[in-house]
């Protein structure tokens, strides 16, 4: 999703309901892929999950525990989080940041307001059998992102992928994060970036960068999966904006990269200028490409600002219906909850724990997955 702001502390009070009994305790093998299917804790099949960009930035362990308890009891297995938090100036004490970018010497924050927050999230996820999809940089300026590297090291946004200084520091950061969790069964996969784009560039730019970066991650950690984190632009099946390669992304070409273990795609019809009804075709066309490549597809983010249940339910059903045909998981954007400080960020897409939307898009979806018996 493009825009993220700091947590907004709303006052809406929610009736929280306990949906399902506690899921099984954490196992010790790493998630993997077998053909077009994910394998998690020995189960091969289709999985549901969600996104929480903010959970690694919370400073209260109890809040992290509360959210993870709710995710676990809801039957969601995969949680995508921001593994980056880049700044170009040190914030005031008490504000979490992971990396300070500067041409005169960058700094990775391993302190209590730095990567120790991510450490807690990983440990707490291990206890609950939740699998984390962790990414390393944002295309957007939220939490720094590529624009923060550009501020520090110069050049243009589209030059980030080939800027030697920016890439050297990005790799240092990757090594720092991967090194901390290389042995953790709570890592679902490493993700190169959130929504990498390179407007007007040859698709070779992102392709080459993704090839080199994924090979680098594999050299550091041969035991976990790796993925790109793109929106899935550039593939056959349509002629509207997201099917084009104008953002420098070729989904099919990137899927062929040896060290990328699965494909990712997002769905936001309104900002892309397509209709909600085009969502099913978008899912089907990605599934077909994944099936052809022999790798699973992860429907990694999807959202609308109104009528969440009515609009998103058919997308979930299309994805689940293709469980043996390329699709292996979906993660709605984004998880909403109530923390000690109040309600989490409501960007219009948020599905709040305990709400009617959550019954529709989480409880009923998880039941549907179980009923479909896609666990092989
Ligand atoms: C992968 O799945 C196939 C069935 O589609 C199964 O026969 C095979 O044993 C699985 N491989 C692994 C390594 O689990
Ligand atoms: C991120 O995407 C936007 C939209 O295409 C673009 O303007 C921006 O330059 C991108 N960032 C990079 C590093 O290309």
UniProtKB/TrEMBL annotation:
Transmembrane segments: none annotated. The lineage of its organism: Eukaryota, Fungi, Dikarya, Ascomycota, Pezizomycotina. It comes from the Eukaryota. GO terms for biological process: mannan catabolic process. Belongs to the glycosyl hydrolase 5 (cellulase A) family. Its EC number is 3.2.1.78. It is an enzyme of class 3 (hydrolase). Keywords: Glycosidase, Hydrolase, Secreted, Signal. Residues 62-337 form the Glycoside hydrolase family domain. One of its GO terms (molecular function) is mannan endo-1,4-beta-mannosidase activity. It comes from Bombardia bombarda. It is found in: Secreted. It catalyses: Random hydrolysis of (1->4)-beta-D-mannosidic linkages in mannans, galactomannans and glucomannans. Its main location: secreted. One of its GO terms (cellular component) is extracellular region. This is Mannan endo-1,4-beta-mannosidase A. Residues 1-19 form the signal peptide. SUPFAM superfamilies: (Trans)glycosidases.
């Amino acid at each position: 999703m493009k825009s993220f702001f700091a947590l907004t502390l709303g006052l809406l009070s929610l009736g929280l309901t306990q949906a399902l009994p506690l899921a099984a305790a954490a196992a010790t093998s790493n998630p993997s892929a077998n053909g077009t299917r994910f394998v998690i804790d020995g189960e091969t099949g289709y999985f549901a999950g969600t996104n929480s960009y903010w959970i690694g930035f919370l400073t209260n362990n109890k809040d992290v525990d509360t959210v993870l308890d709710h995710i676990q009891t809801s039957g969601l297995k995969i949680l995508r989080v921001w593994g980056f938090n880049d700044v170009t100036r040190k914030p005031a004490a008490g504000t979490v940041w992971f990396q300070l970018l500067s041409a005169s010497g960058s700094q990775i924050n391993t302190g209590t307001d730095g990567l120790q927050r991510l450490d807690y999230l990983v440990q707490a996820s291990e206890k609950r059998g939740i699998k984390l999809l962790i990414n390393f940089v944002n295309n957007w300026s939220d939490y720094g992102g590529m624009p923060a590297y550009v501020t520090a090291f110069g050049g243009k946004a589209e030059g980030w992928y080939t800027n030697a200084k920016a890439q050297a520091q990005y790799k240092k950061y990757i090594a720092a994060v991967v090194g901390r969790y290389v042995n953790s069964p709570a890592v679902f996969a490493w993700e190169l970036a959130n929504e990498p784009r390179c407007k007007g560039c040859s698709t070779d730019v992102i392709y080459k960068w993704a090839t080199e970066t994924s090979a680098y991650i594999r050299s550091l950690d041969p035991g976990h999966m790796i993925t790109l984190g793109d929106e899935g632009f550039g593939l056959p099946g349509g002629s509207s904006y997201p099917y084009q390669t104008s953002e420098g992304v070729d989904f099919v070409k990137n899927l062929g990269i040896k060290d990328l273990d699965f494909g990712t795609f997002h769905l936001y019809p309104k900002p892309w200028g397509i209709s909600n009804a085009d969502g099913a075709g978008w899912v089907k066309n990605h599934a077909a490409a994944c099936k052809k490549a022999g790798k699973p597809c992860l429907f990694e983010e999807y959202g609308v600002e109104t009528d969440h249940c009515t609009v998103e339910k058919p997308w979930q059903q299309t994805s689940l219906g293709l469980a043996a045909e390329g699709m292996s998981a979906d993660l709605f954007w984004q998880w909403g909850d109530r923390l000690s400080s109040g309600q989490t960020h409501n960007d219009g897409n948020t599905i709040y724990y305990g709400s009617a939307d959550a019954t529709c898009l989480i409880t009923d979806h998880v039941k549907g997955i179980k009923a479909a018996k896609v666990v092989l």
